[in-house]
């Protein structure tokens, strides 16, 4: 099927904004030209891609399917253009990292500082996402490198470039509200207390649920949030027992006690991962050199 790339480019911009007018502004063409391009693409593909109404634009099922394939292709082309321009100017080009806010705060900041000091002219872009969603960023070409928790159900070993840190998850609570710090508590008893943990879609949520299932236990958290720091704040005021990475408590353990569990909690890793099917940019390569590498 011979379809001009420009038609897919127009489709992507309309699909990304769900607006013909926004796409026309982004592409510097008239709105009628955008509309005509979409009609041409729909005719060539033999099915509608958008549902148009006076108030909004929506993707049809066919449009959603096409977007899943077009989006990473567009990002891949843009990535190639940037790398070619960088090679002509002998520059490193933008460094684009995907990581959770917890990993950014407690692990990445010193390395970002070091990279910025070495290469002050290289723009750094950090996209926050859960460790699971960071893998999607990598496959979609929206990040050059991701720093993520492992194990991670969406990631295979071919993506991992190096293991950069190890850590343990812990249950922590305010001893003034939960008198558990002097005894070893089984998971079976823990599940009867209000558990505070990260929301669904995070590797930590996935990890703890799997851990409880291994012990034939069901887990129903009291609170699920997107921030470990907020979980710590809620544990401090006695709302429940927070499940967090131990390094989140490195700076301040006031008002909290780490609980001892009867069942061991396996060690996890923080890993740096890249897409092996894409060329590594010079900036990504330099950043990787700064990160430690642990044997596991």
Structure explained in plain terms:
- By secondary structure, the protein is of the alpha/beta class.
- Helix content is 43%, strand content 20%.
- Helix 5 (101-118) links the parallel strand 3 (95-99) and strand 4.
- It is globular, with a radius of gyration of 23 Å.
- The model has no long low-confidence stretch (mean pLDDT 89).
Q: With helices defined by DSSP (H or I, 4 residues minimum), what is the helix count?
A: 10
Write down the overall mean pLDDT. Answer: 89
- Gross morphology is globular
- Characterize the biggest β-sheet: 5 strands, mixed
Spatial extent as radius of gyration: 23 Å
Order of helices and strands: HHHEEHEHEHEEEEHEHEHEEEEH
The neighbouring-strand order within the major sheet is 4-3-5-14-6
Structure classification: alpha/beta
Q: What is the share of helical residues?
A: 40-55%
Termini separation: 48 Å
The total of beta strands comes to 14
Strand content: 15-25%
Question: Which helices and strands occur, and which strands form pairs?
Answer:
Elements: H1 5-17, H2 20-27, H3 31-45, E1 50-52, E2 57-59, H4 61-89, E3 95-99, H5 101-118, E4 124-128, H6 131-139, E5 145-150, E6 160-167, E7 169-173, E8 184-185, H7 187-190, E9 195-198, H8 203-214, E10 223-225, H9 228-236, E11 241-245, E12 257-258, E13 260-261, E14 268-273, H10 282-290
Parallel strand pairs: 3-4, 3-5, 8-13, 9-10, 9-11
Antiparallel strand pairs: 1-2, 5-14, 6-14, 7-11, 7-12
Helix pairs in contact: 1-2, 1-3, 1-4, 2-3
């Amino acid at each position: 099927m011979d379809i001009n790339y420009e038609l897919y480019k127009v489709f992507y911009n309309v699909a990304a904004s769900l607006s013909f007018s926004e796409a026309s502004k982004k592409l510097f063409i008239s709105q009628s030209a955008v509309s005509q391009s979409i009609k041409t693409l729909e005719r060539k593909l033999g099915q509608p891609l958008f549902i148009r109404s006076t108030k909004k634009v929506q993707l049809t099922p066919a449009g959603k399917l096409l977007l899943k394939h077009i989006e990473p292709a567009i990002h891949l082309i843009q990535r190639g253009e940037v790398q070619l321009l960088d090679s002509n100017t002998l520059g490193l080009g933008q460094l684009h990292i995907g990581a959770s806010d917890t990993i950014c705060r407690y692990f990445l900041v010193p390395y970002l500082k070091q990279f910025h000091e070495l290469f002050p002219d290289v723009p750094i872009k950090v996209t926050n996402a859960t460790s699971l969603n960071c893998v999607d960023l990598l496959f979609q070409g929206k990040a050059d490198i991701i720093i993520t928790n492992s194990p991670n159900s969406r990631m295979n070993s071919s993506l991992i470039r190096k293991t950069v840190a190890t850590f343990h998850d812990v249950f922590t609570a305010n001893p003034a509200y939960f008198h558990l710090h002097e005894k070893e508590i089984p998971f079976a008893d823990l599940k009867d207390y209000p558990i505070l943990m990260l929301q669904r879609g995070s590797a930590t949520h996935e990890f703890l649920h799997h851990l409880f299932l291994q012990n034939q236990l069901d887990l129903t958290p009291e609170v699920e949030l997107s921030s470990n720091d907020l979980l710590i704040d809620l544990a401090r005021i006695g709302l429940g027992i927070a499940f967090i990475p131990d390094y989140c408590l490195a700076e301040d353990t006031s008002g909290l006690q780490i609980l001892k569990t009867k069942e061991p909690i396996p060690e996890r890793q923080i890993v740096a991962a890249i897409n092996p099917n894409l060329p590594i940019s010079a900036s990504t390569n330099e950043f990787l050199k700064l990160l430690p590498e642990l044997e596991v």
